[in-house]
Amino acid sequence: xxxxxxxxxxxxxxxxxxxxxxxxxxxxxxxxxxxxxxxxxxxxxxxxxxxxxxxxxxxxxxxxxxxxxxxxxxxxxxxxxxxxxxxxxxxxxxxxxxxxxxxxxxxxxxxxxxxxxxxxxxxxxxxxxxxxxxxxxx
Length: 138
Fold this sequence. Notes:
By secondary structure, the protein is an all-alpha fold. The protein has one domain (19-127): Flagellar protein FliS (Four Helix Bundle (Hemerythrin (Met), subunit A)), CATH 1.20.120. It contains five helices and no strands. It has helices at residues 3-14, 18-42, 45-65, 68-95, 98-137. The longest helix is centred in the C-terminal third of the chain and has 40 residues, at 98-137. The chain starts with a helix and ends with a helix.
């Protein structure tokens, strides 16, 4: 990989907001599963394993960072969903099962889109709140 590109990517992650990091992790998980699908088609067992494991590692990070105490029922359900994804990927890796990879991939794509939308809504509400407080100052 180009060393300048690698440094740029490192800087992007190190300076990113938590929301941006979440989306970057989803992007990574989705890329791993797309590569795993190609590896399954080619019956490239080491690549299947490595790419599914890469996605499993990201999902493990999601599981480990969920704040059940503050997130309540939503956090509990999201953690259960991530655990289901992880278990499904373990089975996909053992059986080289394209359908299981596709199942998790489709869910991750949908969740990424949902998080992006939620982040956009939260950011627009933050903007409205700060503009509203500016109105009171004047």
